[in-house]
Design goal:
It is a single chain. The chain has helices at 27-39, 52-61, 78-88, 103-111, 126-162, 182-188, 192-195, 208-219, 265-323, 328-359, 372-389, 409-425, 484-494, and strands spanning 2-4, 19-23, 45-49, 66-69, 72-73, 76-77, 94-98, 116-119, 166-172, 177-180, 224-232, 238-249, 255-264, 368-370, 393-398, 405-407, 432-440, 443-450, 498-502, 510-517. By secondary structure, it is of the alpha/beta class. It folds into 3 domains: 2-154, Rossmann fold; 166-271, Beta-Lactamase (2-Layer Sandwich), CATH 3.30.450; 368-517, Heat Shock Protein 90 (2-Layer Sandwich), CATH 3.30.565. It has a 6-stranded mixed sheet, with helices on both faces. A 5-stranded antiparallel sheet has the order 10-9-13-12-11. A 5-stranded mixed sheet has the order 15-17-18-20-19. A hairpin with a 7-residue loop joins strand 19 (498-502) and strand 20 (510-517). Helix 9 (265-323) runs antiparallel to helix 10 (328-359) and helix 11 (372-389) packs parallel to helix 12 (409-425).
Length: 533
């Protein structure tokens, strides 16, 4: 048995190192798998098991956080390993990593409980599969914790209800008090010696008739449960009571009186309100988890589609070039198509890397004086051909008195590009896009408005969230990963500014408003709080 140990911080836990069990008989493949995970930022303790005995020993001595298993091993295979894992540690994610796994075998493994599968020829898929498996395992554990917490709370509430103060009073057929326990004293305020052998004086006149009816039913041998009454306390105040009546039988089985139990409904209503609040919290947590899973699935589907689309064009034209049958103009068209799609795929990957760096807090701003007016005009000119292709009018309204501001020019241009290209993309032909820039007190305000498709009211609060798109399907009319606005918000906030989106509704256009602080002090070429890591 061989151990690969790395003492860096784990992926999902702040107190323990991620423990990965690797079932693999080829040490070279083992090293490749470890390197693929480390290069993707997945660190931890790697334990290598080469056969069934080592694998079983690892499961029994220290259950891992993740199992990566080859499909074919000498005298052992991935399916047998999966069965062992599901018996000993069923909650641990199990991913098959194999070079010979067919589609039918993969589907069969997934049906038997495998979390995922990755071909050794496609180890670039391993890290996303591992991250997804660990994330889903973490979410599943959280849901289980929530379920256990709710169960514990429910047990606590049941214990509280069972131990709630209950007044126990026995009455004769003539409604005279025969016994009056301590809880009844506390509930109503009268001591037992003041009410025993006296007529019951708790019932308000407005409810006396209904109480007499219930008492008659009990004297006839029936049980009356949980009837809502108001009783009069010693100080004259009214108290809500849940009342139950049961007959008292003598030795000859004759009914000689009734036992009345009084439960203070105020406590019961408080408990019920707490229970309902907990149920609502659990419901909200479940809805949130389901929404997160749906967003994840939609994003992965879009990502796969968007990365595959330019790759298909590149591969297709490359094969045609290799055959050598293309003449000059068609060959140039092929090269142009390959270059265009390569740039598109590079941009998609760069967007993903940008988001990854932002999530990890690794984006640094290089602050210096920036001519915002010139930056806006340059961005408009770069995107004007796209607008003219759709006959979209671009209207510029720039305050000539705007001075330089301190910002990162590259990142600020990225913000302007995202907002303006989105406006053009989502505006129909013959529409318009308006860019306004003016000073507003101590801040610079940039507005990008359009006559485009607008934003639905229910999606508007989520428009700047990561991995959220109003249409997350791969059949949507507009391409892209939907990361531009999330990136834009993050960059604006790093500059100390804010961004807001408004829209009257679908088909009625939208307005994005950026507020950036105007720093009046002189910039010095030294590290400052404006350089954000």
């Amino acid at each position: 048995m061989r151990f690969f140990i790395n003492a860096t911080a784990p992926v999902y836990s702040s107190t323990s190192t991620l423990h990965i069990l690797l079932l693999e008989d080829d040490p070279v493949d083992c090293e490749l798998i470890e390197a693929a995970l480390r290069n993707s930022g997945i660190e931890g303790q790697f334990v290598w098991a080469a056969d069934r005995q080592d694998f079983l020993k690892c499961l029994e001595t220290m259950p891992p956080d993740l199992i990566l298993a080859d499909y074919v091993l000498p005298r052992f295979d991935g399916i047998a390993a999966l069965e062992l894992a599901k018996t000993i540690c069923p909650q641990v994610p199990f991913i098959l990593v194999s070079g010979v796994l067919g589609e039918e075998q993969a589907i069969d493994a997934l049906k038997q409980g495998a979390t995922d599968y990755v071909l050794k020829q496609r180890l670039d898929r391993l890290a996303p599969a591992v991250q997804r498996a660990l994330r889903e395992s973490h979410e599943r554990q959280e849901r289980q914790q929530i379920t256990r917490a709710l169960q514990q709370t429910d047990n606590l509430l049941r214990a509280i209800v069972d131990a709630s103060p209950v007044g126990i009073i026995t009455l004769s057929r003539e409604q005279r008090v025969m016994t009056w326990n301590t809880t009844a004293e506390q509930l109503y305020g009268w001591p037992a010696n003041a009410v025993v052998d006296s007529p019951l004086s708790l019932i308000p006149e407005t409810q006396q008739e209904y109480f007499n009816h219930c008492l008659t039913q009990a004297l006839q041998g029936y049980r009356i449960s949980n009837q809502e009454f108001q009783h009069v306390r010693r100080d004259g105040s009214l108290i809500d009571i849940s009342l139950s009546l049961a007959p008292l039988h003598d030795a000859e089985d004759n009914v000689y009186g009734v036992v009345m139990t009084s439960v203070d409904n105020r406590v019961h209503k408080q408990i019920e309100a707490q229970r309902l609040a907990l149920l609502e919290q659990e419901k909200a947590a479940r809805v949130s988890a389901e929404a997160a899973n749906r967003i994840k699935d939609e994003f992965l589907a879009v990502l796969s589609h968007e990365l595959r689309t330019p790759l298909n064009a590149i591969v297709g034209w490359s094969k045609l070039i290799q055959k050598g049958n293309l003449n000059g103009p068609i060959l140039q068209r092929a090269l142009d198509t390959i270059e265009r799609n390569a740039k598109l795929q590079t941009q998609l990957i760069e967007d993903l890397l940008d988001i990854s760096r932002m999530i990890r807090g690794q984006v640094r701003l290089h602050i210096r004086p920036v001519d915002v007016t010139a930056l806006i005009q340059a961005t408009v000119e770069a995107l004007r051909p796209a607008a003219e292709a759709k006959s979209i009018l671009i209207d510029l309204a720039l305050d000539p008195l705007i001075d330089y501001i301190l910002a990162d020019p590259d990142r600020l241009q990225q913000v302007l590009w995202n907002l303006l290209s989105n406006a053009i993309k989502f505006t129909k032909p013959l529409g318009w896009v308006m860019i306004r820039c003016q000073s507003n007190g101590g801040s610079l305000q940039i507005q990008v408005a359009d006559s485009g498709i607008g934003i639905a009211p229910d999606f508007l609060p989520h428009v700047f969230e990561y991995f959220r798109q109003a249409d997350g399907s791969i059949t949507r009319t507009q391409g892209g990963l939907g990361l531009g606005l999330a990136t834009t918000r993050h960059l604006i906030e790093l500059h100390g500014g804010t961004i807001q989106a408004t829209s009257p509704g679908l088909g009625q256009g939208s307005v994005f408003t950026v507020q950036l602080p105007i720093r009046m002090h002189i910039w010095q070429e030294t590290r400052s709080p404006s350089e954000v890591v």
